[in-house]
Specification:
The structure holds 2 protein chains of 2 kinds.
Chain A: H1 3-11, H2 16-32, H3 37-51, H4 57-73, H5 76-81, E1 85-88, H6 95-105, E2 109-112, H7 114-125, H8 130-133, H9 147-158, E3 166-170, H10 176-187, E4 194-197, H11 213-234, H12 240-265, H13 274-281, H14 293-311, E5 323-326, H15 335-342, E6 346-350, H16 368-376, H17 385-398, E7 403-407, H18 415-430, E8 433-437, H19 449-470, H20 472-490
Parallel strand pairs in A: 1-2, 1-3, 3-4, 5-6, 5-7, 7-8
Chain B: H1 10-24, H2 31-38, H3 42-45, H4 52-78, H5 87-104, H6 106-115, H7 117-120, H8 127-130, H9 132-135, H10 144-166, H11 174-188
Helix pairs in contact in B: 1-4, 1-6, 4-5, 4-6, 5-6, 5-11, 10-11
Classes of the chains: A alpha/beta, B mainly alpha.
Chain lengths: 491, 197
């Protein structure tokens, strides 16, 4: 009976000793969120191998690291009984500010992003986010709110995600998340303590916010205030040196991620897919209570594997095939990239998970909170639309793509509408074709593959025609394919 | 009569709508007509689509899917000899495929390029496909803007000629139509090379 669970962990390169230690915890973790044996079997035999290249050790290790955190999150109630303080973060936020709390509090504190992690694991790897985001009595699929908030609220009220000592809710570019905390605290019979950080968007369009000292100071004060409140609630002192160390460690990790992103996106043939790349990129958007050791091992491994593929000219599509960058996180809708691949187009970097030169510029300040604020204000989605256009255009020009794919933010009243306004301007700035597909990258219930397949094919034919006309290498390759096909038919 | 058929997917609505528009024109499409064809209540349709405008947009997307596929396959077939891969051949192939499309899918063509274009042209999902013919090729030339203008003129000529056919002002055969296109291309675009990416 339990062999399925055993084989699942084995598929992800858990050692025999680890499997014997973690097996019952893993089984309990899956049951806690409502996953049944058949779901685990389907994920293992079909869903994961279909959507991620698990022939690559780095990919297996990375999914395994997410599963370790998934198991850990299921034990929060036990941690609470042991007197461990529990702090949640939420996305979008800057993970290093949460990681600093973990470094300061060590084993006395649990710091994690349970709703985000469940969305990736239950939604992405098991394709069963409906277990958590669709609850008729709380938030259901019909309300069309952000799935992340629905997962948090439904899971909190059902007791799947235990009430934390405090959740630090970032409302810097999502005001629905803080409102969700309020709603949970009203509807839940357990105390749901929250701290909200927000910032007025009262700058001129085009203002370079990371260079605007008043703006950086204001944001840094918000961070300090929130850390102070967390200290008061949990009794854990967040030291300045831990903030520094976290920023340094995060910077090293970010550089590795950047290296991987550029290796994948700027090589022809593209050595690895966008789904695999997003697995790694997403790790920079949250903090893991289990730490980064397993992710660093996965990242180092995948970089070596990608380098090997590049040297051997192994690609996911033939040389010269068109490439798309995207502006969403494709983990929970992996079929988008797979459908593009079936149609001869690959997805490479995601502008939400990648970096451009500005992200590696030296800081103008030595205070760690000012540094953290400057990092946040160098992120395209965090700033006014004029500066966002500039940052996005710079990023896109650093990657070798034939087009950019937007959309899949239909649930988000801020980022969803914002990209509709900036898309045309970025297209003009970069001279790269921009496409848009209505959809929801957390949950495809309302925008299924069968409904979106047509537009994916249309975009693919468009890009392939352009490539056929502009790249002789690609045209030769297609010509050969066509001749081979005719030969096959003849025989 | 009891309505006993359950819809399996939104695709069924789009399929039927595509056929209605193609054979009878855009004005024949209504929720009551769809309900009748699908043997369901007309309110059920709104569980799958927001309104009739959304259905029209999906039909346009389906039209572009067919047209883009035809153009791609035709270019591969016509230009197997790579020496022929120049702007003239590209434009002739595209023009020929649009003409064929307008004949085969007359109703949908009218929705895409005659009736629907002005309304749906700016929709983010649809808009990139209208720019296909003016943006798909990079011309190796110093005067990029002038070439863009010429390609836009070509776009207007293609659809102008087809409209003359649709509204019965003229009745061009494919050869006559291509003759006009050839005349324009030979005078304004001939001899241009395609820029290697």
């Amino acid at each position: 009976m339990e062999k399925i669970y055993n084989r699942f962990l084995d598929m992800l390169d858990f050692s025999k000793q680890e499997i014997s230690q973690l097996l019952s915890d893993f089984e309990n973790a899956t049951k806690k969120v409502g996953l049944e044996r058949e779901d685990v079997k389907y994920a293992m035999n079909t869903w994961i191998p279909q959507n991620w290249d698990i022939t690559m050790k780095g990919v297996r290790l990375c999914i395994g690291a997410y599963i370790r955190e998934f198991i850990d999150i299921s034990k929060i109630n036990e941690y609470k009984k042991d007197g461990i303080k529990v702090i949640y973060g939420m996305s979008p936020s800057q993970a290093s500010l949460f990681q600093a709390i973990k470094i300061s509090g060590q084993d006395k504190v649990f710091v994690g992003y349970p709703d985000f992690l469940y969305s990736i694991v239950v939604g992405g790897f098991f394709n069963r986010i409906d277990l958590l985001n669709d609850n008729e009595e709380n938030l259901s699929i019909r309300c069309r709110h952000c799935s992340l908030n629905r997962v948090r609220m439904n899971s909190a009220i059902e007791g799947i995600i235990p009430a934390p000592d405090v959740i630090w809710s970032w409302g810097f570019y999502c005001d629905e998340a803080p409102k969700t905390e309020e709603l949970i605290s009203i509807l839940s019979d357990k105390k749901w303590e929250y701290i909200i950080s927000r910032m007025p968007h009262d700058v001129y369009i085009g203002d370079e916010e990371d260079k605007n000292k008043d703006r950086v100071e204001y944001l840094a004060e918000q961070f300090k205030y929130a850390h102070g409140e967390i200290e008061n609630i949990t009794g854990i002192e967040i030291k300045n040196k831990d903030m520094y160390n976290t920023l340094i460690e995060n910077s090293k990790y970010t550089r590795k991620l950047d290296k991987l992103t550029r290796l994948v996106s700027n090589n022809d043939p593209q050595p690895m897919g966008g789904n695999e790349l997003a697995l790694f990129g997403t790790t920079n958007s949250m903090t893991f209570n289990t730490g980064y050791t397993f992710f660093i091992e996965a990242l180092d491994t995948i970089i070596e594997e990608v380098k090997k593929r590049i040297s051997e000219k192994i690609g996911i599509l033939p040389v010269g095939s068109p490439k798309l960058g995207c502006h969403f996180t494709p983990i929970c809708v992996p079929w988008v990239e797979r459908t593009f691949l079936e149609n001869g187009v690959s997805i490479s970097f995601s502008s939400n998970l990648s970096f451009s030169k500005i992200n590696f510029q030296p800081f103008d300040y030595i205070d760690p909170y000012m540094m953290a604020a400057q990092i946040w204000l160098r992120t395209a989605s965090s700033v006014n639309s004029g500066y966002q256009i500039k940052l996005m255009s710079e990023m896109i020009s650093e990657y070798d793509v034939d087009g950019m794919l937007y959309g899949f933010f239909t649930f988000d009243r801020w980022l969803g509408s914002n990209q509709n306004m900036i898309l045309k301007r970025i297209e003009e700035e970069t001279d790269v074709h921009h496409f848009y597909i209505e959809g929801d990258f957390w949950d495809d219930t309302n925008f299924k593959k069968s409904d979106r397949k047509g537009i994916i094919q249309s975009i693919s034919y468009f890009l392939k025609t352009k490539k056929l006309m502009s790249s002789k290498v690609y045209a030769e390759s297609m010509k050969k394919q066509e001749k081979d096909k005719w030969q096959e038919i003849k025989h | 009569m009891a309505r006993n058929k359950a819809l399996k997917s939104r695709d069924e609505i789009i399929d039927i709508s595509f056929n209605i528009i193609n054979s009878e024109g855009t004005y024949a499409l209504s929720s009551r007509r769809l309900a009748k064809e699908l043997n369901i209540s007309f309110m059920t349709i709104y569980n799958y689509v927001e309104n009739i405008e959304q259905i029209k947009k999906e039909v346009i997307l389906r039209g572009f899917q067919i047209l883009n596929e035809k153009i791609y396959k035709s270019i591969i077939k016509d230009n197997l000899d790579l020496n022929k891969m120049d702007i003239k051949n590209y434009c002739l192939t595209v023009s020929k495929e649009i003409f064929k499309f307008s004949k085969r899918y007359n109703g949908v063509y009218q929705l895409m390029f005659v009736n629907g274009e002005t309304k749906i042209y700016k929709d983010l999902e649809v808009a990139p496909f209208y720019k296909h013919y003016t943006q798909v090729i990079n011309v190796k030339s110093k005067n990029h803007n002038e070439n863009k203008k010429t390609l836009h003129m070509l776009y207007l000529i293609i659809h102008g000629l087809i409209r003359e056919n649709i509204f019965g002002h003229k009745n061009y055969t494919e050869d006559e139509y291509l003759n006009y296109i050839d005349f324009f291309i030979s005078n304004y675009l001939n001899g241009q090379e395609v820029k290697d990416a």
